[in-house]
Amino acid sequence: MRLLVIGCGGRWFPGSTLVLPRPGGTAAMQATLCPKESARLIAAHSVDVRVDEAGTRKAAEFLFDCVAEPAFGLAAWKALHELHPRTASEEALGWVFLVDTLNFSFWAEYQGQGCAIKYKGKMYAGYWSLCAAVNRALDDGIPITSASYYATMTLEQVKHVFRSDTEVPMPLIEERHRVLNESGTVLLEKFGGSYLTCVKMSQKSAQKLLRLIVENFPSYRDEAIFQDKKVSFYKRAQILVADTWSVLEGKEDGCFSDISSLTIFADYRIPQVLVHLGAMRYSDELMRKLHEGVLLQSGDKQEVEIRGCSVWCCELICDHLLELYNKKGQNMNEKINAVLLDYYLWDYARNHREDMKYIPFHRVRCIYY
Ligand SMILES: Nc1nc2c(c(CN[C@H]3C=C[C@H](O)[C@@H]3O)cn2[C@@H]2O[C@H](COP(=O)(O)O)[C@@H](O)[C@H]2O)c(=O)[nH]1
C-alpha cells in the first residue's frame, strides 16, 4: 500500500495514493504529517515538554563559533569517526544501510554497565558497539553487509555477530534478527539486493529517498498518534538519508539538492543536550519520572512530546543560527542544516557525558531509535 505523507508545508508527495478517511474514520486513515509539520504540531500543544524560545536563541549564540569548526561539517562523519567507512563505494553504502537498519536502543539499564564490544584493542559502547560488531564480522570474513546473507541469518548467527565483550548483551537482539531478515528480504526482492539501486531511484532527492525507505522497509515507519493526528519522526529513515549523504561526501548519487529539508533525528541523546543547553524544558512531573528511570512506551504522549519538541527546538536553533550569520552578511545555507546540527549536538552529548549526567534521558525500548 502506498503511504500518503503530507510533505513539509502541506505539499502532497507526487504519486502518492490519496487515502481518504472513512466518515468518522480514525486517525489511522488520515494522512501522515511529515516530521517537520509533526514537530510543529506537537510543540504547539505539548504539556510536559516546552521549547524555550529564549533558550534556543542562547543555544544558537553558543553554537555560533562552533559552525566554523571541522566538527560541524560533512567531512567530520569520516574524519572524526574511525569506525565509519573510509570510501564512497557501493560496499560503504551497504554498510550504512545495514548499520542504520540496526541503529536503535543501545542504552544500558545501569549506567556504564552495558554492552560493549572490543575492536582492534579498543572497547566501544552504544552506537559505536554496533559499528564495532559490524567491522569485526567483516574482518572475520562474515558478509554481514550483504543482503543475501542477512536476509536469512538465524538468531544464533545474529547473536554471534553482535556478541558483547561484557556480561550484558546488545539489547533487543531478537528484534534485530527480525528486522535484519525483513530488510534483507525487501532489499533483495525490490532493489536487487543493492541499497545503491535504491539511492539511484531517489534521483538525488533526500525526500524521495526518505519516502522510498519508509514505503518499502516497514521497520523504518517511525510514526505515532498525537491529538488524533498521525505524526512521524522517521528517525532511522532520516539518519539513513543523512548517512548516505555523508558516506557519499555529498557528491554524485549523494548530491541531495534538498538535504536541508531533513529534520534532526529524534533519538534519546539529543533531548538531553537540548535540556542541558536550556533550549528545552521538562515539567517537574516528567523530570521526576525520567530521574526514576521509568520506562516509557513508544507512542506514549510524553515520549511523543519529548521527540516532537526536540525536532522543533532544533528547527528554531537552525533558523536563529542562519539569522545570526545573515546579520554579519554571511549566507550559511550550505553550511548549516538540521543534519549537521544534529551530528554536532550528538557528538557534543557523547563528549560531555559528565557535564550532562544530571539530566536523565528518556528510556524506551523500541526499534525506531
Ligand atoms: N540524533 C542522532 N542519534 C544518533 C546518532 C548516532 C550516530 N551518529 C554518528 C555519526 C555521525 C555523527 O557525528 C555521530 O557521530 C546514533 N544515534 C542514536 O543515538 C542513540 C545511541 O546513543 P548512545 O547510546 O549514546 O550510543 C540511539 O538512539 C542511536 O540510534 C546521530 O548522529 N544523531
UniProtKB/TrEMBL annotation:
<keyword id="KW-0378">Hydrolase</keyword>
<protein>
    <recommendedName>
        <fullName>Queuosine 5'-phosphate N-glycosylase/hydrolase</fullName>
        <ecNumber>3.2.2.-</ecNumber>
    </recommendedName>
</protein>
<dbReference type="Pfam" id="PF10343">
    <property type="entry name" value="Q_salvage"/>
</dbReference>
<comment type="similarity">
    <text>Belongs to the QNG1 protein family.</text>
</comment>
<comment type="function">
    <text>Catalyzes the hydrolysis of queuosine 5'-phosphate, releasing the nucleobase queuine (q). Is required for salvage of queuine from exogenous queuosine (Q) that is imported and then converted to queuosine 5'-phosphate intracellularly.</text>
</comment>
<dbReference type="GO" id="GO:0016787">
    <property type="term" value="F:hydrolase activity"/>
</dbReference>
<dbReference type="InterPro" id="IPR019438">
    <property type="entry name" value="Q_salvage"/>
</dbReference>
<dbReference type="GO" id="GO:0006400">
    <property type="term" value="P:tRNA modification"/>
</dbReference>
